[in-house]
Amino acid sequence: MKMRQSGEWGRKLVLGLLLSAVPATAWADWVDVMRKFRPRISVQEEYTDNLFYRKDNRVDDFITTVSPGIGFSSTENKEVKYGLDLDYAPGFVFYAHNSNRNYVSHAGTLNAWYTVGRNWTFRLWDSLIQSKNPLEAYVAPPQQQPQAPGLYYPGVSQNGYRYLRNIVQPSLAYRFGREDMIELSYVNNYYHSENPSVGTIVLDSVTPRFTYWFNIHHGVVLEYTYTTGRYDFSPDFAGHRARGRYSFRPDPQTTLFVQYVYDAMDY
Fold it and tell me: Using CA atoms, how far apart are residues 132 and 156, in angstroms rounded to an integer?
């Protein structure tokens, strides 16, 4: 009995020495890191009266989605020199009357930036989703200051096939005024579906953008986008888009704008 008590006290002594050897600042840093994680969970109930998108013989069903998730943000101040935002959320989807359609989805995003000096900023944004959702959610890179119109990537898979979409966008920006900026961005949009009639689609685009405010009331955005598309079962294409926007800001809370967009596609 004495030997057992002695061994127990020995383990407690070793543990106490280890804990006392860790500086208080290290514990504070660890707590600060853990506060940057934000777990969450959501439950969604959906009713559809046309599960298979048919004109006749419609089938209704209730769809329950349980989605736990976790986010990480290195800083709340997006104006700091560098930062990293991460987010991941699986989705467990259950059909009340068509359980053979149950599936698990995955969605994740990454947003990182690094500023060199006072003018140059490199950003990397990535969004990945794997799902069978008939109507894919819209995704867009986080808006930057000065705000540039976001790019949206809708997709529809109405036959219950699993698909994977990954969008990666690196960009380099040079800021020469409070809201004046020259930016060059590249977007790779990869889409693969298990639907044998769709296969793989890859879109690549390059966009130079110029944003300039003449004064606090008048500003312009000029940009050009060159896009190529490669399809397994459709003709490839090359596209050109030119866009010009004039903005008028009568007060800090109101902005009026007019823009012109020109599109040309070559299949």
Answer: 10
Q: Of how many residues is the chain composed?
A: 267
Spell out a b/e string for 38-64, using b for 16 or more CB atoms within 10 Å of the CB, else e: eeeeeeeeeeeeebeeeeeeeeebebe
Q: Measured between alpha carbons, how far is 73 from 112 in angstroms, rounded to an integer?
A: 10
User: Residue 171: which of 220, 215, 123 has the closest Cα?
Assistant: 123
Whole-angstrom distance, CA of residue 230 vs CA of residue 213: 37
pLDDT tens digits, residue range 38-61?
Answer: 999 999 999 999 888 788 888 999
Residue 250 is predicted with a pLDDT of 93
Residue 30 parent element (H or E):
helix 24-34
Kindly report, residue by residue over 119-158, the tens digit of the pLDDT. 999 999 999 999 988 776 666 666 543 344 444 455 556 6
User: What are 172-216's pLDDT values in tens digits?
Assistant: 999 999 899 999 999 999 999 888 888 899 999 999 999 999 999
Strands of the sheet containing 61-73, edge to edge, are: 37-48, 61-73, 82-95, 103-116, 120-131, 163-175, 181-193, 200-213, 218-231, 237-251, 254-266
Instruction: Supply 155's token pair.
Output: 């997709």
Residue 127: Cβ-neighbour burial (10 angstroms; 0-12, 13-18, 19+): buried
Give the pLDDT score at 4. Answer: 45
**Whole-number pLDDT of residue 233:** 85
Q: Residue 14 belongs to what H/E stretch?
A: helix 2-21
pLDDT at 117: 86
How many angstroms from the chain centroid is the CA of residue 11?
48
Where does 74-199 show beta strands of DSSP type E? Answer: 82-95, 103-116, 120-131, 163-175, 181-193
